[in-house]
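Example record

One chain of 357 residues, shown exactly as stored in the release files.
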Amino acid sequence: MRILDKYLYKELMATFFAVLVVLLLITFGTEATRLLAKAVEGKLPASIVFQVLVLQIPTALELILPLVALLSVMLAMGRLYQDREIVVLNSCGIGRGYFQKIMTRFLIPMVVLTALVTLWLTPWAVKTERALIAQAQVTAPLAGLVAGRFNSLPQSNGVLYAHTIGRDGEMSDIWIRLVEGERDQTIIAPRGFFEWKDDRLALVLLNGLSYEGLLGGEQLSVREFGRFDGFLPDLQASVAQPKRQEKNSFALWQSETLEDQAMLQWRLAVPLSVLVLGLVALKLSKTEPRQGRFAKLFIAIVLYVFYMQSMITLDDWVKAGIWPIDLGLWIVPALFLLYALGSPKIWSRIPKLKVAK
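Predicted structure tokens for this chain:
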């Protein structure tokens, strides 16, 4: 390997990892905020927030890696143009073909890495995430309850308050108000917990008091109990259904449905997009002396948005039967690759329309 090859690979690799880290921090900063909000609302057990966040990395990488390839190549090669190093290399006989070859060699390992993510890691992560949440909901049926807050019971049948809720489901200072028609009941207990009985979720309260008729309209009744068992099946958290993204790639290959074939094409087209957008970035990185290093960065981001939106649109069309499955999503990377590899001389040879005066 020549010294120039090592120099270019070093520049590309350093920029690639820098852009990847920045985009991951931006993406998962937003995602972590969303998961923490769900945990505060009781929609997600707090104990598995970090695990769920880690399992969402493969899904995010599917969208991030093509953009990372685009931006890293543009920034690395743009610096070479800005510092006039490319001019020196061109004067030494190193032309456009050499940089395309270097870029292809650099991007091929990224394509393989992205293929591993889309074809294997993402389906596994989605399936594991669903199973993790389902297991947490089964072992922690209080996922929908928040300590120190008045929690509305299902179907507006009452309110439950617990000062503290432990990880094992142990609750303290419990206050419950149940409403059934014109009958109201208020229950107070210093200690309680949930347990499973006959595949139903039972609320167990110990050494408490039960009040009926506090709102008037009937005789006030006060009862003391040592143990209260009440079934609240509606508090059981619902288990998410399996997602189509969980299907392994081999099953998608054998499937004949349009949805599965479109999903398989997406998993194959995303790794190819890393190579295509990297080569597009190589062409866009050429700047004039006074343009600046970030002159075409906005154009690159717009192209990326257009590229991914076209892929998503064609994916929807394939599923609906509007777009032929044979063309599928391949038309988008094919057109961008034609632009990336096309020589400017080819476009200049296209006859231009002359307007008659």
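Notes: The radius of gyration is 30 Å.
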